[in-house]
């Protein structure tokens, strides 16, 4: 009788549908925690990579601040074709954008750090045609001498 034919284990499998390539979403790099000395200047570093070069007309960046983990996010720095400081009273004019989006760097510097600046800083980046919005998160701790 004809036995059931069993495929030998070393036969290469034929896949009619090639596996989907890994999603080439944006990746954002930011340190999880930054310690800054009260009164000093500190760079809050946020960089990203993307398959697409940055076009100012498309690119957008938001930096938000959260005083506590379930506090609402307050927008204080935004890039839309040009950089705009939505200065929260808490930061006065101490926020300076020191990144370069064309080099995938959206860092900013916070001058004269105060104890009240402690909290979470969120960096959101969108670089169309990439549809994925990148998010970096930094916890800032302020140390006294």
From TrEMBL:
GO terms for cellular component: plasma membrane. It is found in: Membrane. Keywords: Disulfide bond, Glycoprotein, Immunoglobulin domain, Membrane, Signal, Transmembrane, Transmembrane helix. Coiled coil: none annotated. InterPro entries: Ig-like_dom, Ig-like_dom_sf, Ig-like_fold, Ig_sub, Ig_V-set, Myelin_P0-rel. Its main location: membrane. Pfam families: V-set (PF07686). This is SCN2B protein. The lineage of its organism: Eukaryota, Metazoa, Chordata, Craniata, Vertebrata. Residues 22-139 form the Ig-like domain. It is a single-pass type I membrane protein. PROSITE patterns: IG_LIKE (PS50835).
